[in-house]
Amino acid sequence: MKIAIQGTLGSYHHQAAIEFFTNQNLDLNKLDSFSKVAKSIHTEESEFGIMAIENSIAGTLLPNYRLITRYNLKIVGEVYLPIHHQFMVHPEADWESITEVHSHPMALLQCDKFLEKNSHFKIFESSDTASTAKLIADKNLKNIGAIASKLSAEIYGLKILQPDIQNIYKNSTRFFVLKKNASAPDSFSKVSLKFSTSHEKGALVNVLNEISNLDINMKKIQSVPIVDEPWQYAFHVDLELDFDRKLELLLERIRPKTTSLEILGCYQNAVDPIVDVKAYPTSLETIN
């Protein structure tokens, strides 16, 4: 079973794959962009793919919704992964030897308070968090620090100089598990729909009212521009269902009220572990 991920071993996409495909041998197809991940699933080079779709701090990755549509992919699962950034170096390096810090732009942004406190470091962007950790190990670099996951430090034998350097401790990323062809499973508790409506007054509200009338909990709604139709938008919604029959009822009611309607996936609702954790500090100042 080959699984496409963005990034290399030790990346957060790698962690999400481990989390979802528990106790399975993972044959990872490590790619350097989300578009290559989507194409790999579409061409069936990879059976599954892992793709980040939103972060609790940075928000939604809109281009990834477009990739799902462009390559006609189906959502078969989701993973919520707490993001804990570690500052790691070569095992023989120390604070005094580090002159540069490398990481993915999003990780650098989420750790900017740490970087401000260590303003003597030169900052460099990399393609993903784990790639710099691998580079430090491969090239025996003792002047570069990486911001990456604990898994990266373990895989590449690096030393963590300071753990959990993210600005906000409650930082989580949601990932979709994607497949080319997938029918609805026998049992599911969540569904992702994509639809569009006319620009008539109340068109969107009419659809949302039908969702409410069936006592369906809408976890998310996201508007995404339709590329070939300026100022036209599609809406992506994630809905929690307490029984499968509700989906059939909902589709019957909203189809006449939409100009397009598509099921992107039916899957089991995952739980974000950071939501229920009360003991987490909320910021870097609290944990230093």
From TrEMBL:
Residues 192-268 form the ACT domain. The record marks T173 as: Essential for prephenate dehydratase activity. GO terms for cellular component: cytoplasm. Keywords: Amino-acid biosynthesis, Aromatic amino acid biosynthesis, Lyase, Phenylalanine biosynthesis. It catalyses: prephenate + H(+) = 3-phenylpyruvate + CO2 + H2O. Gene3D superfamilies: 3.30.70.260, Periplasmic binding protein-like II. This is prephenate dehydratase.
